[in-house]
Specification:
6-stranded parallel sheet, Rossmann fold, 34% helix, binds magnesium ion, binds adenosine-5'-triphosphate, globular, 9 helices, two-stranded parallel sheet
Length: 233
């Protein structure tokens, strides 16, 4: 088991909630503060075929945000075509994807800050018989939970929070991401409501931004960045 990694594991309440969008902004902010960042999307499903190779879009975006410090083959060694959970997508290709293979793929420069993006949500299957939760636990990285800021998110975040705590992992932050433009449901304030339930966890809101390179993070995340930078999460 690896215990000496510095960084964080980006998970979500669901697929498509903005894990990559947020992770890229986080990575750019960490770099701006002087950190050397390494990224991993150890398995990516739904890769598109280009010139005979499967191209992992999330892994490319993350590596680009980190300044392309490593070859994409290291960032994302396991690439699957079907846009399904990695466990099922691998089975469709008659591959057996083990948790150990994903853990090994997350080995990197010990001095660098490692940002790992899972696949789907915290309890989504990511390898044969394993959930994202198992990977996060094996890596022993603090977790940042990303959720789409819409009606129903309080339930999703509190369920996921309980799951993260069951795994004895640190929940470093909850990120409520606005995944679509337009006004929020009238009167809704999920961030404020969640703060009452999650008193010791920062709850950040990320606005919808057309320009995905816009990456000013809310002030509430400053202590999270600081502890990541100092390796004290
Ligand atoms: N705050 C935002 N502003 C603008 N576009 C966003 C925002 N958040 C997410 N998006 C867009 O929504 C889509 C889904 O976001 P993203 O790919 O980051 O989700 P994900 O959780 O990483 O999904 P997956 O489970 O496939 O990894 C992307 O096209 C992304 O650019
Ligand atoms: Mg993603």
């Amino acid at each position: 088991m690896m215990t000496d990694l510095k960084g964080c594991f980006i998970t979500g309440t669901d697929t498509g909630v903005g894990k990559t969008h947020f992770a890229a902004a986080l990575i750019r902010n960490l770099r701006r503060q002087g950190a050397a960042v390494r990224v991993r999307k150890p398995v990516e499903s739904g890769c598109r075929l280009q010139a005979g190779r499967l191209v992992p879009e999330d892994a490319s975006l993350l590596n680009q945000a980190a300044g392309n410090p490593e070859d994409l083959d290291l960032v994302c060694p396991y690439r699957l075509a079907a846009a399904l959970s990695p466990e099922r997508a691998a089975r469709l290709e008659n591959l057996s994807l083990s948790l150990q293979a994903l853990v090994s793929a997350c080995h990197t420069d010990k001095e660098a800050l490692l940002v790992v993006e899972g696949a789907g949500g915290f309890y989504s299957p990511i390898a044969e018989g394993c959930l994202n939760a198992d990977l996060a636990q094996a890596l022993r990285l603090p977790v940042i939970l990303v959720a789409a800021d819409r009606l129903g998110v309080i339930n999703q975040v509190l369920l996921a929070t309980e799951a993260v705590r069951n795994r004895k992992l640190t929940l470093a932050a909850v990120v409520l991401n606005q995944t679509a433009p337009g006004p929020a449901t009238k009167g809704m304030n999920n961030a404020e409501d969640l703060k009452n339930w999650l008193k010791d966890v920062p709850v950040a809101q990320i606005p919808f931004e057309k320009d995905s390179s816009a990456d000013r993070l809310p002030a509430i995340l400053e202590p999270v960045l600081k502890s990541l930078l100092s390796g004290r999460t």
